[in-house]
Each structure stands twice: as structure tokens, then as C-alpha cells.
From TrEMBL, chain A:
SUPFAM superfamilies: MFS general substrate transporter. This is MFS transporter permease. Pfam families: MFS_1. InterPro entries: MFS, MFS_dom, MFS_trans_sf, MFS_Vesicular_Transporter. It comes from Magnetospirillum moscoviense. Keywords: Membrane, Transmembrane, Transmembrane helix, Transport.
Length: 698, 260
């Protein structure tokens, strides 16, 4: 295992995390489920007895009126509603004293009769998967028949099966959190300091003792770093003593030849070795992109916890007013959150330039976490909307601060790697947050879930406060441009029709589908389909899951083949077509159609998201050079957020006209039409002049 | 207190393990309680339903609700059958209790919220919760569709905890034992996994000290060609060379200085 590489250590630790977390949880789950099943049997027995007693009383009344037991009529009509009202019951039967089945509903009599004949007057039988409770029917003190109530042993297991999914969600989320924490522990405590040690060692082995590695941790790596630093400082002290002595001799010695010779010695030492000129070795510090990953993960986790139920939460306040329908009121919190992000994002860049990433992260946390906390106490949709705007402003500040931090901490040649850290943290947080949010909201309610969000956001702030060095600011992304071009001239980018087409017909519809369909329509449709909040969360998670898998593959394909336009076009078409799946003509169950549409959206965005960003410098590389790639990409994000804003509002506007699934199809239609336009445009991307410089020179 | 790498990693793993165990237990318990509560409620709903049917059959014969004196025996019999039932009450549309398993409660008025379900257009079953008891009820409707009153059954909220206390304690003890055992495993495994890192770092520190004090060379792992240890060996050699060179230079300067 190499000490300066994190992968082998991480693999070992992650395997360890799996071995530590999975077996005890699995073991306890199976044990507890067994106990729970056994604990429920007496309760089922009591219920079967209550039902059996009632039926027996009615049968006895009929027999007492003189109706022979085998001549009763309408027994099936009597049994059927009882079975329908009590799903745990599988059958009801009446048997003669010799075990013959006289009447049965819910099971074939041939399955029961041999057991009744064999059992005689026993009251409890196990017949296959059924537990059979027999109650005697008495007439004039004589047993004339028995009423049998059969319930399904598998019923309890099926009712408890949801626990498996909840526990699976908790376990997967725990493993992801464990991975993030271990990643942080390894990078912060081992790889980061060892990388610095590597730099110091590389300098020193070439004779340069001017630097020592920073780091004050008390672990083995910290001890090693301090030992190395002490050694270098000791050499530095000896060097400085020698130089002081030489200076003294040169200043005070009367023999010129001695002075010359000590000067030669000083020159020789200085020639062979390099020591710091400032009087002591400089402390080498380097920030790593991974330092911000855990706080970012926790922050996005906090925001994503509301994903599975935000429109449902809004609906709790929402009564239609003159201006807005109920659906519109449910959509507005999502839209206004996006407005908050859109407003704050362009401004966040200049704030970061003034205050630095650490302070902007901490400043952004105040509205974000405060927004989550107060959302728990909102009592009107207007309050909710205002709080979502506030949270959106904070969200933009925090995420832009993280992007900038990562961008500044990443070398130019490793920018994709830096982007990977950001996207990785956001996607894993999205998977965990959405799924856990659904499970938590089901158990503790919407309000308490928002409080948990606020706490998680506060923890992310505490981590940033503790871990990021306040002094380690500054630096500028290498592709920030010369900064001479003004914002006004930035809009000249839209004169580049390829850029405009990419934005309007690929980026905007993608975001429209994301917020309109996934964030707004999916929770509402699945809730109407009587799915629970954890189920809604698990269904929505399909999107980031597929995104996470596909985006890495598509980024590689895009880099290898350069076929970025094609991937963006195909992605757009898949997204649009996927949203047409709830069309009634296709005959799919609404919840199944929605799940498939989510998968299609995940595939769509997984294929197109990375190539879309990579395409921007291809389409306008002169503009990227003039304005800086960061500013051009910031403009792309701002414009595509218009799609995020429009999506939920458009979907809500469609609902009164075409209903919920109709709204999905209509939104899909809009996305598909825009995507088709992009496909048509993309055929012309490669032809003609497409650089500002070329056009200007024409 | 200084925290070794193994201690940091094991603390993180144990914290995650405890959180996971706790969340799993809480979610599992609530789910179990949900399922069991719904089963208990549905059993009592059935009991209420049979009483309702009994009463409505008589109402349909034209009898007034307060005249159905046999119902008092029926509800008392149901209460005797199940000691978890706190009480069964039948009240009219104005809220006056006509029959009650606790005969002292006959004639009193029911809380206002017990009347709210009767105002609903459909005669659906209803359930209410108080601090320490739950209630399931059904409206009594005559054959003209008029709501005559309701029958309600009360049972204690803590029933499930009481019934399943031993079972839950057993599961909790097993959970704690598993968490304890795996916490110890996490601790030991972290020391095993990260022990090699500490050992190698300490070995490199010792090498540095030995080479600087006694001379000689650091010997890197032959499999680590071009890796950190090879570069470190060069660093050790260069540091020793620098220290010795500076020491020799110092001696030379002293010698020259003494020439005076």
C-alpha cells in the first residue's frame, strides 16, 4: 500500500465499513422480524375469534329457527363482504361434525376437507400457509357444525415487508455517509498531509530545505510530518549558525585569505543547498478539493430531504385563491426556490471574490439553514414561498462557494477531476437525502424533517468553520479570463446561434423536465396513487442513481469520441419521449409509467449533462477565452435555471386542463418539441463559420 | 488527547454504526407498531361493527335507540370477553350516553369531538385518540338514513407497549449486544487495517533518526521503485549529506578562524 495514494486505503476502509455495518443490521432485522411476526399471531388469533364468534352466533340463530345447517342459503353472500373487509382472512367455512365442508368462501373445499376430517374437534389447525380457527356451532347442547376462520400466515410478513425497504434505505444511506466520512478522514488526515510531505521531500532531495509541511494533527501522519519538519528545521538551524559564524569571521578577521576562504565555504554551501531566505523554513500549505466535499455533501443532503414531499407539504396550506389554483400553489415553492438560486448565483461570484469561499459558505448557511428551520413552522403558503426564496439564496451562495473552492484547489489539468468531486458529492447526497427524507417524513412528519435539514446544514457549517483555514483564501481559477469584458458584453454570447440553440433547446428543456416533472409532478402523482412517502422517495431516487452511473460513462464517451452534440441530442429526445410514457394509450399503470419516465429522465440527463457543459467551450471557445470559461458557464447555468423556474409553473398550469398524468405528457410534448429543434440545429453545428472571430473577420 | 488514525476511523465507524442501529430500530419499531395498531383497531372495529349491526337491526324494526335495553348486556359481554377493552358506550345524536359498560356513565354527555363524526355526510367508521386511550366508533343509522347516535369502543394506547414489552426488551438487548460486538470489531479491525500505515511511518522516522545519528543509508522497499519510499530514501540521504556538509564546513571555518 503506497502512503501517498488514497485509493488502496479507501478500498480497505470501505470494505471494513461494509463488514461493520451490514451484518449487524441484517442480523438484527431478521431476528426482529421473526419476533414481530410471532408477536402478531396472538392478535390475529383474537381477531379471527371475534369474527368467528359473530358468524357462529348468526349460524346458531338460523339453526335454532329450525333451518338444517346444510340447507342454509346465501352463505357465500354473507361470507364475501366479511372477507373483503378483513384482508388478513383468507377463507371462511362451515363444516359438518364429520369434517365435510358444507360451505366455503375463499379456498377450495378439497384443500380443507381432508384436514377437517383428520382433526376431528380440534380448534386450531395449520393448513399449508393458513392458520385455521374452528368454533363449534351448538344446537340444543349438541355440536351440529363448526365455523372455520382461516387467516394467512404470510399476511403479517407482507405487512412488515415495508420495513425491509426502510431499513435498506437507512443502510444504503449509512454506507454512503460512511464512505463520505472515510473519504474525508483519509484525505484530510493521510493523503493531504502526505501529499504535502511528498512536495517537501521532493524539494529536499534536490537540496532545497526552504519548506516544511504544515499540519498539526496528533495522529501517526501528524507525528511523521513533525519529525520531518524538525529534521529540516535542525538542518536549517545548523545552516544559519554556520552563516552567522561565517559572517562574524568575515567581519572581524584581519587575515584576508581566511575571509576569502570562508566566503568560498559559504558560497559552496549556498550552491549545494537552498535554505529559506526569510530566516526560517516556510510552512507549505495546500488546500484540497476534497476538504469541502463532506460539508457540501451534508448541505445538499439537508436540501434534498424535502424533495420527496415539498409539493405535498405546500398542499397542506394550499387552498386555491382567485389568482392561483391549488396546483399552482403547490408548484410555487419549488419555482421560487429556483428563483432564489437564479438571483443569487451571478451575484455569488463577486461576493466570493470579496469575502472568500469560507466566509461566503458560512454566510450562505444562515439563510439556507434558517429557511429550513422556519419552514417547519410555516403556517401559510406565502410564508413557505418566502422561506423557500430565502433558502434558495443561501443554497446558491453555498454551492457557488463550494464550486469556487474546488475550482481554485484543482490544477488546470485536473479540472474534470474537481468537477467530479462536486458532482459526486451532490449526486450521493441527492440519493441519500431524498430517500431518507421520505422515510423520516413518514415517521416524524414534514415539520420535524425540516428541522433535521436545518441541523444537518448547521453541521456542514460547523465543519467548514473548523476545517477550512480562514487564511488560505485567494487564488483565481486559471480560466477566469482576463476580466476585461463587461457583463453587458457577456450577453453578446447569444449572437452565437449555436450557443443560443444549445441553451434554449437542450439546457432549458432538461431543467424544465427536472423541476416540472421530477420535483413537482412525481410526488403529487405518486401520492395520489396511494404510495407512501418512503416509496415516493425511493422512486425519485431512481433519477440520481441512474444519473450517477451514466454521467461518468457518458463523460468518458464524450471525451473519447468528441461526439458531444449527438449525446446531448439523444439525451433530450429520450427525456421528452420518456415523459410521454403516461399516455393512456400505452396502457401503463400511472405509478409504473411515472417510474419508467423517471428512469428515462435519468438516462436523458446522465447522457447529456456532462457533454452539454463540455460542448460550451467547443461552441464558443473565443468567448470563453475573452470572458473566462467560469463566467460563460455561469451564464449557461443562469439561463438553464429559467427552465427550472418555468417547469413547475407550466406543469401546474397543465393540470386543470389535462389532469396529472396529462400534465406529464404535455410537459413531455414541450420538451420533445424543443429537443427535436435542437436535433435539427445540431446537424448544422459542424458547418459554416461559428466563431465570433471568424464572423467578425468575414 | 492525541487521536491515532485507527482511533479516528473506528470512532467514525462506531458512530455511524450506532446511528444506523438506532435509526433501524426506531423505524422498525414504528412500522411494527403501525401494523399491530391497525390490526388491533380493525379487531375492535369489527366488534363495534357487530354491535352496530345488532342495534340497527332493532332500529329497523321501529324501536327507539334508548329502548334497546338488551344492548347493555351485549356490550357488557363484549367487555368481559376482552380485558383490554376500557369501555363500550352508545350515545344518541345529541351526545347523551344511553348505554355504557360502566353503568355509572349512563346519562352523561360525551365530549364534543365525539359528535363531530356524526355530522359527516357518510356514516364512516371513525377513530379518535386521547392522551392515554384510543377510540374506534361507528355511527348508528336507521333505515331512513338518519343518524341516531354512535357506538364507540375505548382501549388503552399503551396496550401495545404493555403486550409487547418483553418482546421489545429482548430485541433491544440483542440489538445493543450486536452493536457492542461490532463496535469492538470496528475498533480492532481499524487498528489492523491502519496499523501498517503507522508501522511504516514509524519505521521511516526511525530510519531518518538512525541515518542522521549513525550514518548509513535508508533502504526503500524494492517494490516501491519511484514511489514515496524511494523518494524518501533520497531525502534521507540528501538531508544527511547536507547536515554532514554543514558540520564539516563549520569545522573548517573554526579551523580557519583559529589560524589567527
Amino acid at each position: 500500500m503506497r502512503l501517498d495514494r488514497s485509493r488502496p486505503l479507501l478500498v480497505r476502509l470501505f470494505v471494513l465499513a461494509i463488514l461493520i455495518l451490514v451484518p449487524p443490521v441484517a442480523m438484527i432485522t431478521f431476528r426482529a422480524l421473526g419476533e414481530f411476526e410471532r408477536g402478531m399471531v396472538p392478535e390475529l388469533d383474537k381477531k379471527a375469534a371475534a369474527i368467528g364468534r359473530d358468524i357462529t352466533a348468526q349460524v346458531e340463530r338460523a339453526v335454532e329457527l329450525g333451518i338444517p345447517i346444510d340447507h342454509l342459503v346465501g352463505v357465500d353472500e354473507f361470507f364475501r363482504p366479511v372477507l373483503m373487509a378483513n384482508p388478513e382472512l383468507r377463507y371462511l367455512a362451515i363444516s359438518a361434525p364429520d369434517g365435510r365442508v358444507l360451505f366455503v368462501t375463499g379456498a377450495p373445499s378439497a384443500d380443507l376437507e381432508p384436514h377437517y376430517r383428520e382433526a376431528g374437534q380440534a380448534t386450531n389447525l395449520t393448513i399449508g400457509d393458513f392458520l385455521d380457527l374452528a368454533l363449534p356451532v351448538q344446537s340444543k347442547g349438541e355440536r351440529v357444525a363448526a365455523v372455520h376462520v382461516g387467516f394467512d400466515q404470510g399476511y403479517i410478513a407482507s405487512r412488515l415487508s415495508d420495513i425491509f425497504y426502510d431499513i435498506a434505505v437507512v443502510l444504503v444511506a449509512s454506507l454512503i455517509v460512511a464512505f463520505e466520512i472515510l473519504l474525508f478522514v483519509v484525505f484530510f488526515n493521510v493523503t493531504g498531509p502526505m501529499k504535502l510531505v511528498g512536495l517537501v521531500v521532493d524539494r529536499a532531495r534536490r537540496g532545497d530545505f526552504s519548506h516544511v509541511a504544515g499540519g498539526l494533527s496528533g495522529d501517526e501522519v501528524g507525528h511523521f510530518v513533525r519529525t520531518l519538519s524538525t529534521t529540516i528545521r535542525r538542518a536549517d538551524d545548523q545552516y544559519r549558525s554556520l552563516m552567522a559564524y561565517i559572517d562574524e569571521v568575515r567581519a572581524a578577521h584581519f587575515d584576508k585569505s581566511v575571509v576569502e576562504r570562508v566566503a568560498e565555504i559559504a558560497d559552496r554551501v549556498k550552491f549545494l543547498y537552498r535554505f529559506a531566505e526569510s530566516g526560517r523554513p516556510a510552512v507549505l500549505r495546500e488546500r484540497l478539493a476534497t476538504d469541502i466535499r463532506l460539508p457540501l455533501f451534508l448541505f445538499v443532503f439537508a436540501e434534498e430531504m424535502g424533495r420527496a414531499f415539498m409539493p405535498l407539504y405546500a398542499r397542506e396550506f394550499g387552498q386555491s385563491t382567485g389568482l392561483f389554483t391549488t396546483e399552482m400553489l403547490m408548484a410555487l415553492p419549488i419555482t421560487m426556490f429556483m428563483v432564489g438560486i437564479t438571483v443569487a448565483s451571478p451575484w455569488a461570484g463577486s461576493v466570493i471574490a470579496r469575502l472568500g469561499t469560507r466566509r461566503v459558505f458560512l454566510t450562505g448557511l444562515i439563510p439556507a439553514a434558517g429557511g429550513y428551520f422556519l419552514t417547519a413552522f410555516a403556517d401559510s403558503v406565502v410564508q413557505l414561498i418566502v422561506l423557500r426564496i430565502v433558502s434558495g439564496l443561501g443554497y446558491a451562495l453555498v454551492t457557488v462557494a463550494c464550486q469556487t473552492y474546488i475550482s481554485r484547489a484543482t490544477l488546470e489539468g485536473k479540472r474534470a477531476q474537481g468537477l467530479g468531486i462536486y458532482v459526486g458529492a451532490v449526486l450521493t447526497a441527492s440519493i441519500c437525502g431524498t430517500a431518507m427524507g421520505g422515510v423520516l417524513a413518514e415517521r416524524v412528519g414534514f415539520d420535524a424533517t425540516f428541522v433535521v435539514s436545518a441541523v444537518l446544514a448547521a453541521i456542514s457549517g460547523w465543519l467548514v468553520h473548523r476545517l477550512l483555514d480562514p487564511g488560505a483564501e485567494g487564488g483565481k481559477a486559471a480560466d477566469d479570463g482576463d476580466g476585461s469584458a463587461s457583463d453587458k458584453s457577456l450577453f453578446s454570447l447569444f449572437a452565437n446561434w449555436r450557443f443560443t440553440a444549445l441553451l434554449l433547446f437542450a439546457a432549458v428543456p432538461a431543467k424544465m423536465a427536472l423541476t416540472g416533472f421530477l420535483f413537482f409532478l412525481v410526488p403529487v402523482i405518486l401520492w395520489r396513487a396511494e404510495m407512501s412517502l418512503p416509496e415516493i422517495g425511493r422512486t425519485i431516487v431512481l433519477y440520481p442513481l441512474i444519473m450517477a452511473i451514466l454521467s461518468a460513462v457518458s463523460a468518458r464517451i464524450s471525451d473519447l469520441t468528441g461526439w458531444r452534440t449527438g449525446l446531448v441530442a439523444i439525451g433530450g429526445l429520450i427525456g421528452g419521449l420518456g415523459l410521454l410514457l403516461p399516455l393512456p394509450q400505452l396502457g401503463l399503470e400511472p405509478s409504473m409509467a411515472v417510474a419508467l419516465a423517471i428512469i428515462a429522465l435519468g438516462v436523458s440527463h446522465g447522457l447529456s449533462a456532462s457533454p452539454q457543459l463540455a460542448l460550451v467551450p467547443d461552441l464558443c471557445w473565443i468567448e470563453c477565452h475573452t470572458f473566462g470559461r467560469t463566467r460563460v458557464l455561469a451564464l449557461v447555468r443562469t439561463v438553464e435555471r429559467l427552465g427550472s423556474i418555468v417547469g413547475p409553473v407550466l406543469a401546474a398550469a397543465f393540470i386543470p386542463i389535462w389532469g396529472l398524468t396529462g400534465a406529464v405528457v404535455a410537459l413531455g410534448g414541450v420538451v420533445l418539441v424543443l429537443s427535436v429543434i435542437f436535433v435539427v440545429c445540431s446537424f448544422a453545428f459542424g458547418s459554416g463559420l461559428h466563431l465570433v472571430a471568424e464572423e467578425d473577420g468575414e | 488527547m492525541s487521536w491515532s488514525l485507527a482511533r479516528k476511523v473506528s470512532a467514525a465507524l462506531v458512530a455511524i454504526l450506532l446511528c444506523t442501529g438506532l435509526l433501524t430500530a426506531v423505524f422498525g419499531y414504528y412500522k411494527f407498531e403501525d401494523v399491530l395498531s391497525s390490526l388491533v383497531r380493525s379487531r375492535y372495529s369489527f366488534v363495534v361493527f357487530t354491535i352496530k349491526k345488532n342495534i340497527e337491526d332493532r332500529l329497523n324494526l321501529g324501536l327507539a335507540l334508548r329502548q334497546l335495553r338488551q344492548i347493555q348486556e351485549t356490550i357488557e359481554l363484549e367487555k368481559v370477553r376482552d380485558d383490554q377493552i376500557l369501555g363500550i358506550e352508545i350515545y344518541d345524536a345529541r351526545g347523551e350516553v344511553l348505554f355504557n359498560t360502566d353503568r355509572g356513565g349512563i346519562g352523561v354527555s360525551v365530549p364534543a369531538k365525539w359528535l363531530e363524526p356524526l355530522a359527516q355526510p357518510s356514516s364512516q367508521p371513525f377513530s379518535l385518540m386521547d392522551d392515554d386511550m384510543q377510540l374506534v366508533g361507528l355511527p348508528l343509522v336507521n333505515n331512513l338514513g338518519k343518524v341516531e347516535g354512535a357506538v364507540v369502543l375505548r382501549f388503552p394506547s399503551a396496550f401495545i407497549d404493555r403486550e409487547l414489552g418483553p418482546l421489545l426488551s429482548r430485541v433491544a438487548v440483542e440489538l445493543l449486544a450486536a452493536l457492542g460486538l461490532f463496535s469492538v470489531i470496528a475498533l480492532v479491525a481499524s487498528y489492523v487495517v491502519l496499523g501498517s500505515v503507522g508501522r511504516r511511518l514509524r519505521a521511516m522516522e526511525r530510519t531518518l533518526a538512525t541515518v542522521l545519528a549513525e550514518g548509513g543509508d535508508a533502504e526503500p522497499d524494492p517494490t516501491d521503485e519511484g514511489g514515496f519510499e524511494s523518494r524518501y530514501a533520497e531525502f534521507v540521504a540528501k538531508t544527511r549529506e547536507a547536515v554532514e556538509h554543514i558540520a564539516e564546513s563549520t569545522q573548517e571555518v573554526e579551523r580557519l578562524d583559529r589560524l589567527a
